[in-house]
Amino acid sequence: MAKREHRIILGLVCTICKNRNYVTTRNKINTEEKLLLKKFCKHCRKVTDHKENEKLK
Ligand SMILES: [Zn+2]
Fold first, then answer.
1. Distance 42 CA to ligand 1 centre (A)
2. CB atoms within 10 A of CB 36
3. Does the reported pTM lie above 0.85?
4. Residue 36 · residue 49 · CB < 8 Å
5. Per-residue pLDDT tens for 8-25?
6. How far, in Å, from the CA of 56 to the mean position of ligand 1?
7. Ligand 1 centroid distance, CA of 37 (Å)
8. How many domains does the chain have?
9. Residue range(s) defining the domain that contains residue 20
10. Rounded CA gap, 18 and 1, in Å?
11. To which H or E segment does residue 22 belong?
12. Residue 56 pLDDT greater than 60, yes or no
């Protein structure tokens, strides 16, 4: 199986305003839990929690 099939593309959504601010990838073999990252949200104009939601691919 090709290595890149283990990487899934997902969106990171601000938990405050629900805007999708980032797109990232995750290796589902190495990282089984959902991501929760502190990132700058340009809509809230501050650092907020961003969680993964949709699988883009
Ligand atoms: Zn926000």
1. 7
2. 11
3. no
4. yes
5. 889 999 999 999 999 988
6. 20
7. 13
8. 1
9. 3-55
10. 35
11. strand 20-27
12. yes
